[in-house]
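Example record

The entry below shows one chain as it appears in the dataset: sequence first, then structure tokens.
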Amino acid sequence: MKRIFLLFGLIFSCGFCFAFPCVTQFVEAGTGYVAAKNVEREFNPFNFTYGIAEKNESCVNFSPNFKAFASVQFSDKIFDFTTLGNYFIPRLGQETDSQKIGFGAELVYHFQRYYDLYSEHDIYLEGVFRLALKNRLLFLANLGSGLKFARIDAVERDFLWDFSLSGSVALNYYFDCGAEIFGSIVSHGVYRYPLAFTPLYSLGFAWNFRNGLRVSSDFGLRLRDQFVVAPYIDRYEWNLKARFSF
């Protein structure tokens, strides 16, 4: 099954190589390790992503005005599909030689299937604020809300649904040599959308090569009951990814 999804992702991305001459395209593959105290327990996910962004001559494709991607993650028990798009409105932004301020919107759809247990759909709409300084520092803040539709295999009824708020802050710093450090606090990740506000803290490092290759690694942990009772760590995760932009 993993080989089928990887082959599909490769064919899909190659088919779009010459379809968008005004954008930068990228493909990304990754793996990692997750240890959780919930139903997931421990697993090693694999993921593949194809995306497009506004064309930029910078090797790090710094702060594009639009971006979209589709991504799959899978293991022996869980399958996830996520598609995301954001757009920064030019009339609401300010740009000088040293800084770039923008306001935009982001739409996310996520599907998850936990084999023989449940399935869920998540739809989120968020406002985005961006501040870029001298092509070195990039700050992003998201605030929005979403709907979750879930169906449990053992329960014979229609989809259960619930409403949740979402938010995140992220900071990236780029060095002239190609190195990059980044960190974030998010209410949801690319593949996990909890209803309760259980923030995921992450910190990572990447290296951006001049040929469009980016290699990154990050570590994250999620805190449960942080604002209610005594907090405890609910999830650890480590990710290793390689991205190629063309």
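Notes for this example: Confidence is low (pLDDT under 50) at residues 1-8. Helices lie at 2-15.
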